[in-house]
Write a structure and sequence with these properties.
With about 280 residues, this protein is mainly alpha-helical. About 55% of the residues lie in helices and about 0% in strands. The protein contains 14 helices and two strands. The chain has helices at about 15-30, 35-40, 50-55, 60-70, 75-90, 95-105, 105-110, 115-125, 125-135, 145-150, 155-170, 190-215, 235-255, 280-284, and strands spanning about 175, 180-185.
């Protein structure tokens, strides 16, 4: 890689990479321009690069190869650039998750963006948050076999061991002076792309756990209820505020339990079952 070029493996947004590449190229070569890049990539449109950078155009597979050639990317850089484009342009959660796996498969990316991968794993595996909370149990045993067997449904000991490593890496678990584990309150900063994808994975997995609990958990040990109501759009914000307040109340109640032995999941879903009328003011 040329010294003046930004390291593509430090990026998760290929458009950001293109913007930084353009700025660096202008400094390196005063003759560099959008027209210059277009000619090198074989485009007649002089501002195609700018349109892509600004999100007004996407890249096809053929365009990915053209851009990679114009950017003078090596084989591994070319493959990584292709994965970045697919991640950005994926139109379903499944495609986006697969594209992120392709991105994260790069050793150089994992080294440069270590916390992105760890945070993605944390929210994309339902048992990671569960194990973090399990550490607060009065009877907790730091043994992967024991941890794996306690979960519902059970997981493999290797998965529990890997989970502990990730939680410690993120600071979501910490050790006290005696070496015992306790929950940490680390502030994990990661890119918007990873955060939004991982949070979506988290909610989908926890809703799956809720669905499975109907068959797996006796009714005495769970509560599943629902309301279908008709409200005005003006009430939506109030409903959300009350749900938030109730969630905070339950969280405080759980925090005041000094001898917890069970990890429970509480899901809150509030969504429309018909089209929500648009606000006339928004259309003005």
């Amino acid at each position: 890689m040329s010294d003046w070029k930004p390291d593509i493996f430090e990026y998760l947004d290929y458009r950001d990479y293109l913007k930084d590449y353009y700025d660096a190229a202008k400094v390196h070569n005063s003759a560099f321009s959008y027209r210059y890049f277009s000619r090198r990539a074989g485009y007649s449109s002089p501002n195609f690069l700018k349109l892509v950078m600004d999100g007004q155009r996407n890249l096809s597979n053929d365009s990915i190869d053209r851009f990679a050639k114009a950017l003078k990317l090596t084989g591994s850089e070319h493959r990584f650039f292709r994965a970045l484009v697919h991640f950005d342009q994926a139109d379903t959660a499944a495609k986006k998750n697969q594209a992120f796996e392709d991105v994260a498969a790069s050793r150089r990316f994992r080294k440069a963006r270590r916390l992105d991968r760890a945070f993605f794993d944390y929210l994309s595996h339902w048992y990671y948050p569960a194990i973090r909370e399990m550490v607060a149990r009065a009877d907790f045993v730091e043994d992967p076999d024991w941890i794996a067997s306690q979960l519902l449904p059970p997981i493999k000991a290797a998965q529990a061991e890997e989970c502990l490593e990730v939680l410690l890496e993120l600071g979501l678990l910490q050790r006290d002076d005696d070496g015992a584990l306790h929950r940490g309150e680390a502030s994990v900063t990661t890119g918007h792309e990873v955060r939004s994808l991982a949070i979506g994975n988290y909610h989908r997995q926890m809703m799956e756990r809720a669905s499975e609990s109907i068959e797996l958990v006796h009714r005495d040990h769970r509560d599943i209820s629902a309301l279908t109501v008709c409200i005005s759009p003006e009430r939506i914000a109030e409903f959300k505020d009350r749900i938030h307040a109730f969630r905070e109340t339950l969280l405080d109640l759980g925090d005041r339990d000094d001898q917890p032995t069970c990890v429970y999941q509480l899901n809150f879903q509030f969504f429309p079952l018909n089209e929500v009328p648009s606000d006339p003011d928004d259309e003005a």
